[in-house]
Specification:
Strand order of the largest sheet of chain B: 1-2
Shape of chain C: elongated
Low-confidence stretches of chain B: none
Helix content of chain B: over 70%
Structural class of chain C: mainly alpha
Radius of gyration of chain B: 23 Å
Shape of chain B: globular
Largest interface: B-C, 51 and 41 residues
Distance between the termini of chain C: 18 Å
Mean pLDDT of chain B: 80
Oligomer: heterotrimer
Structural class of chain B: mainly alpha
Number of helices of chain B: 13
């Protein structure tokens, strides 16, 4: 596993990534987003809009290449780190920082900033979802020559990938006062980053705006401005796209594809995504997390409900062919994906029998089941911003009503939704994860790793030692085949446990204005290529005019 | 005269006091103590949170909290809005002008249209056209504003593509004079919808008033003197018939405020109505309370002004107050 | 009956009958989703006369059951509003003096807050409400006009010859109230009821449209329209039919109120 990347190859990689066939400079892209960014500093971000913002403002040390191969270091491209070197025992990687890399306020990026970024992730007060991913990192050393060394406790196939996840943060602007957390610091509202775009303005719930950094060390972005306007209603957002008042709407609903084709200025872009949606059962009582859930701690009940829900029908009804049903907590683009996992069968008759045997009898008056006079009912928490999950909830509600289960729907707006989910205040939650190319995310989303014994995002408190062990073994495996075998065991365990209904992975169809030249659409975050977007000069709109001295 | 004025002022003050108390009850008595809970959100600056806790009397008896709440209003401090990550007054300062623009335009256009149409309907009450438009007016009053808004949006923005679908400005659109026109273009549909609703209400009252005045004695005298019909209408009849319209100003304003909430939601107009609906959905109680407070005070104040205008303009109405 | 009253009364009676008979009239279960994949958003046709919604639910059935919900809520709200309004109005008129002034000023105060905003204020605190509570809240915010009308009419009745005579004869106030005033209030109450009803129906629709009133899968005219947002052009039936229903109910009630008021005036003159 020791490879040193010759400077020449690094240079070529840099050229290939950014400078090929440079188009003209200028243009404004207006993105209509369904929700506001929850935060703009990488350790605080938990939503995809937050990732959009933070990944435009901040650069990592290195960035995974378009092939999304997370094993080894061959497919990674330099960013704030110009080059890197492994130690003899492969337990330390030393990064040399790019000499021209600067923060948006002019200060050069230094080793102390990498340390600051690492500390921010490891500080549990910030609630970063990378905490579990960096469990193997022993520490960061700032060397006298300005390089920075990351130390690991053990070798692993995705060791380099783990290191690549750290976003350096401006050490000179980090809060030093003990009373001020990162979230309440001025930096959180006025982020100063190292990425190709710099922060201009943020009006919560309305819009935020970034501008290209003129002297960026990787070269100025082609676009002048990135504006994100928040339109929670898809109707309004799409209407803006049709009217050319906005340029990008990701996740076009299936029903609007026909409409999109009627507008000559709209282009549809297909991509895989790394997000998946699911319905997670809460294993703990929604009112008191120390107690087991009165309904869902019982495996048989979870199984019965899983047998009653026709996941394929739900997915097809919402997306037509624009999403794929899931076989487990993974997406097909991940190398550990395995669609041969045995699923809980769709069998309404068996579900009804199972419920009968548990004592839940159908009451002839309203068709709903009761046990000892108590109604079989629970509440599903859904986020206000996801139309798709809302539709899924209505479809599933009806499917469950057919077998006598009364599911209530509670729609919560995003902040409340996130808070309730984190605090475990739900019976079932219609959740979604923006997963990463690596399957390591399983640790925090469904595992019991972490300081308090829980993965930082395991809101339903699913706990199975066999699952954890299989994931751990998979991550430690030396080659992809062994890794896949272990992950298969892990996936099969969680599916058989009926910890959640794994619903769908959407295939992104985005509506984009045709005047943009898009070099590549990345499935790990379509916004990552925004620095390379450019506008065809002949098709410029008035808003693409270069701003006069601002 | 001063007695009447003082009386109406006292009345208005009582109204405002009741609204304030209702808002206070909402934000302090709702489950979870939302007013102070908002200050515990992770992104509230520590100094702001500490200051607000002190100012609004956290841990003090409820009576004292009420007084502090009142003094807070007087100071212009209404607490922290967690959904917008800013003090409530800052949010309101940003959205209220947009709503005033919308409501003001709608009121003006609606009044002018309503008075003109209603006066004509009243004067020529027997004509078929007048009766037909009267029926149309009755139907319009019965259509919910949000449906009217949806239909207008459909026709003018989607089908005929004449006007923008929503918002107040084109993103990165022109500035200066062209920018003003841009805002006006966005204003047409939402203000137009509200103006139609207002006009329908006003027209009905104006029509009734006009009919009553039309056959009045003094007008017969004017006709006998040979004064041309148009002059009679404009100078004599209308002036007398105008006052009744002003007396329904309170109802109009309340209607306008409610309508603005729905129209702003449909047309994504960044005003207080839309902020209010979002605030309710986000359970952002301080912002809800602040918005309702400001609206009610506005409606009360404007009604008071309208009443005073009536009182000043029409001596006969003075007795009725 | 006065011929001018026949039409609105007939319309309202028909709506009431339809609402009551909804389970018998509706061709489908309003919450059933027969085939969300292939039957969603179908235009009106022979099986589904009013088309289907995005979940393949039959719109006609939803409009019929929606009549039950929307009209039921409005009727309950009117009952609450009327009861409270009579109490306040009568009390004000009967006691007179300072209590009268206080009650009337309170009524004016309550009227000053735009009703939708008041409802939003309450819903912000309570969260989503079941239909019965929603009706209660609607009624609790709509008694003011009734109170005013009742007070005005009670005062007028108190000033009439025969009530004054009854008072002079020493008839106890309660009996006075029951035997002489209350019957006289009936026409006013009828007008007040129709006005309150005409206001309650669109208000409930507006709340449901904002997502704060009746929640799916229960149908209300307002929340059927909500599902049309963004698709009005392609799914116009989701807007047209509930709107016709709302307009019919509101129009009939408005018309009835107006004609009843004129009818009363004519009787008096």
């Amino acid at each position: 596993m020791r490879r040193t990347v010759p400077l020449l190859i690094a240079l070529l990689a840099a050229c290939g990534g950014a400078d090929s066939a440079r188009g003209p400079v200028g243009g404004t892209v207006i993105i209509a987003a369904a929700a506001d960014a929850d935060a703009m500093l990488p350790p605080l971000v938990r939503t995809s809009q937050g990732r959009l913002a933070s990944e435009l403002l901040f650069d990592r040390l290195v960035e995974i290449g378009p092939s999304l191969n997370t094993i080894g270091d061959g497919d990674f491209q330099p960013r704030l780190a110009k080059s890197w070197a492994w130690s003899e025992d492969s337990l330390r990687i030393t990064f040399t920082l790019h000499p021209d890399a600067k923060w948006h306020d002019g200060r050069p990026v230094s080793a102390a900033d990498v340390q600051a970024g690492y500390r921010a992730i490891m500080d549990s007060a910030n609630g970063s979802n990378l905490l579990a991913d960096l469990a193997d990192v022993t520490g960061i050393v700032e060397n006298a020559d300005g390089t920075v060394t990351i130390g690991f406790a053990r070798r692993a196939p995705e060791q380099f990938y783990a290191a690549s996840l750290i976003f350096p943060l401006p050490a000179h602007l980090m809060p030093t006062d003990s009373g001020v957390t990162l979230a309440t610091s001025p930096l959180a509202r006025n982020p100063v980053g190292s990425g190709p775009f710099k922060f201009v303005q943020w009006e919560p719930l309305e819009r935020f705006e970034f501008a290209a950094v003129e002297d960026h060390y990787r070269g100025r972005a082609r676009l002048d401005r990135v504006v994100v306007t928040i339109t929670p209603e898809p109707a309004t957002g799409l209407a803006r796209i049709w009217a050319e008042e906005a340029d990008v709407w990701e996740l076009l609903p299936a029903g609007d594809v026909a409409e999109a084709q009627r507008h000559p200025h709209v282009r549809l872009v297909n991509a895989n995504a790394f997000d998946y949606a699911f319905v997670a059962f809460n294993f703990r009582d929604a009112r008191d997390r120390t107690k087991p859930h009165p309904l869902f701690a019982e495996a048989a009940l979870r199984r019965a409900i899983s047998m009653a829900v026709d996941r394929r029908a739900v997915v097809q009804a919402i997306f037509d062919t624009l999403a794929r049903p899931l076989s487990g907590p993974f997406v097909r683009a991940q190398f550990t994906a395995d669609t041969t996992i045995a699923q809980i069968p769709l069998d309404r008759v068996a579900a009804a029998t199972l419920l009968d045997s548990l004592g839940w009898r159908v009451d002839a008056n309203d068709g709903l089941r009761r046990r000892n006079g108590q109604l079989l009912t629970f509440t599903a928490l859904i986020p206000g911003s996801s139309r798709n999950r809302e539709r899924a909830s209505v479809l599933i509600q009806e499917q469950l009503r057919q077998i006598g289960v009364a599911m209530e729907i509670e729609r919560a707006e995003n902040r409340t939704f996130t808070q309730k989910r984190q605090d475990g205040q739900f019976d079932v939650v219609f959740g979604g994860w923006l997963s990463t190319p690596s399957p390591r995310g399983l640790r925090s989303t469904w595992g019991t790793f972490g300081d308090d014994g829980w993965g930082g995002q395991n809101d339903g408190r699913y706990s199975n030692r066999a699952f954890d062990a299989a994931v751990q073994q998979g991550l430690a495996a030396g080659d992809p085949t062994t890794a896949r075998a272990h992950f298969r065991t892990a996936y099969q365990t969680i599916v058989t446990d009926a910890a959640a209904l794994f619903l769908y992975e959407p295939r992104i169809v985005a509506a984009v204005h045709k005047r943009f030249v898009i070099p590549a659409w990345r499935s790990d975050g379509w916004w990552r290529s925004l620095a390379e977007w450019s506008v065809v000069p002949a098709e410029r709109l008035p808003r693409d005019a270069r701003p006069t001295a601002n | 005269m001063t007695r009447v004025l003082l009386f109406r002022l006292a009345q208005a003050t009582l109204v405002v006091a009741l609204v304030v108390t209702a808002c206070f009850a909402l934000i302090r008595l709702a489950p979870g103590d939302p007013f102070f809970a908002a200050l515990e959100q992770p992104d509230v600056p520590v100094e702001a949170a500490a200051r607000m806790r002190a100012q609004f009397g956290y841990d003090r008896p409820i009576g004292e909290q009420y007084l502090r709440f009142l003094s807070g209003i007087a100071r212009g401090d209404l607490g922290w809005s967690h959904s917008r990550a800013r003090p409530v007054t800052e949010v309101l300062a940003q959205v209220v002008p947009n709503t005033l623009l919308l409501m003001g335009t709608a009121l003006f256009v609606g009044l002018v249209l309503g008075v003109a149409v209603g006066a004509w309907q009243g004067w020529r009450a027997e004509s078929r056209l007048a009766r037909a438009t009267d029926r149309l007016g009755v139907v319009l009053v019965s259509v919910p504003e949000f449906v009217l808004g949806l239909v207008m949006a459909l026709l003018f923005a989607v089908v005929w593509r004449l006007l923008p679908i929503g918002g107040m400005r084109t993103e990165y659109g022109p500035s200066g004079i062209a920018g003003l026109f841009d805002v006006l273009r966005h204003l047409v549909l939402p203000a137009g919808t509200l103006a139609i609703v207002i006009a329908a209400i006003v027209a009905r009252h104006q029509r009734a008033a006009m009919r009553a005045v039309r056959d009045a004695e003094f007008l017969r005298a004017a006709r006998a003197m040979g004064i041309p019909e148009r002059r009679i209408v404009l100078r004599y009849a209308l002036r007398n018939a105008l006052a009744p319209v002003l007396t329904v100003m309170g109802v109009l304003l309340a209607s306008l405020a409610s309508g603005a909430v729905l129209i702003e939601r449909i047309f994504a107009w960044p005003g207080m109505g839309r902020a209010l609906v979002d605030a309710v959905l986000y359970r952002d109680y301080p912002l809800v309370a602040g918005a309702v407070l400001v609206t009610s005070i506005g409606v009360v104040g404007a009604t008071l002004l309208a009443d005073l205008a009536v009182w000043w303009a029409d001596p006969r109405a003075r007795g009725r107050l | 009956m006065n011929p001018r009253l026949r039409l609105p009364v007939a319309v309202l009676a028909t709506l009431a009958l339809v609402a009551i008979a909804a389970p018998l009239l509706a061709p489908f279960d309003p919450a059933a989703q027969p085939d969300p994949i292939n039957l969603a958003l179908q235009a009106p046709g022979s099986t589904h006369l009013f088309g289907t919604d995005p979940y393949s639910r039959d719109v006609l059935s939803r409009v019929l059951f929606g009549a039950r919900t929307s009209l039921g809520i409005a009727a309950l709200a009117v009952t609450v509003a009327l009861s409270f309004g009579v109490l306040v109005g009568a009390l004000a008129a009967l006691t007179g003096g300072r209590l009268d002034a206080l009650l009337m000023r309170t009524t004016d105060a309550a009227l000053a807050i735009p009703r939708l905003l008041l409802l939003l204020l309450i819903v912000a605190g309570t969260g989503p409400l079941p239909p019965a509570l929603l009706a209660l809240v609607l009624g609790a915010t709509g008694w003011m006009t009734t109170a005013r009308l009742v007070r005005q009419e009670t005062r007028r009745l108190l000033a009439t010859e025969h009530v004054r005579a009854a008072e002079a004869l020493g008839i106890p106030p309660l009996r006075l109230w029951r035997a002489h005033i209350l019957p006289g209030l009936v026409p006013t109450l009828t007008v007040a009821a129709t006005i309150a009803f005409a206001a309650a129906v669109p208000l409930e629709a507006a709340l449901s449209f904002l997502g704060l009133g009746v929640r799916p899968p229960d149908a209300s005219w307002g929340n059927i329209i909500l599902e049309a947002e963004g698709r009005i052009r392609s799914a116009w039936w989701l807007v047209l039919f509930p709107t016709l229903a709302i307009v019919t109910a509101t129009l009939a009630a408005n018309l009835l109120a107006e004609r009843l008021a004129t009818h009363d005036e004519d009787l008096r003159a």
